[in-house]
Amino acid sequence: MDQDSWDALDHFFCEQLLPVDLALDAALESSAEAGLRSINVSPNQGRFLNLLAKIHGARRVLEIGTLGGYSAIWMARALPSSGTLVSLEIDLLNAEVARANLARAGVASIASVLVGPAIESLKGLIDKRAEPFDMVFIDADKKSYPDYLRLTLQLLRPGGIIVADNVARGGRVADPRNHEDDVVGLRQFLRMLASDTRLSTTAMQTVGSKGWDGFSLTRLSTE
Length: 223
Known about the structure:
The chain has a single domain (3-220), classed as Rossmann fold. The chain contains eight helices and seven strands, in the order αααβαβαβαβαβαββ. The chain has helices at 3-17, 22-33, 43-56, 70-76, 92-104, 118-127, 145-152, 181-195; strands spanning 60-64, 84-89, 111-115, 133-138, 156-165, 199-208, 211-220. The protein has a seven-stranded mixed β-sheet with strand order 3-2-1-4-5-7-6, with helices on both faces. Helix 6 runs parallel beside helix 7 (145-152). The radius of gyration is 17 Å and the shape is globular. It starts with a helix and ends with a strand.
């Protein structure tokens, strides 16, 4: 199997299972026109996040890494009308594109974008004693995943879940000879997940239109 085969199968799944969605298509188009990197989740991964939020009964979602708002739209659509999605983005241009995309998709009333370094935004939410979140999606710079985990655990309700994207990095996380900053950060992140007795975690590798990567899924104990 190669990238062409993975692309073809992802296309087949999306064609068979996902209806045409003009707002989501427009979000991708406007992001590309603005020069944003094409590193958003794929459509079937977006649907996965949407279904996960619905199955979990999420009312409040926190996202770290907005980009053009594509994944935020998917998750915001899973929330009740009284729900809240807060997305953290360091780049002002990305945030402006995302806000326009969220408005076009009709979810701007429940989805907002905070601009600034995510660590500072997370500390701000903690200092303000923000209402706990039911679900957290981490999809930002990998070397900072350990810090994101440490801080989001202070914002997650008991029984809440954390989904972290890009944890496989083409298998490089399992190569002890690899000392790239992102890989080192992810290894520390995984060790933290494993060593915290309050957490139950698994990780799965994925292949598809976004290449060879993976995600982790974590639940915070209610005990």
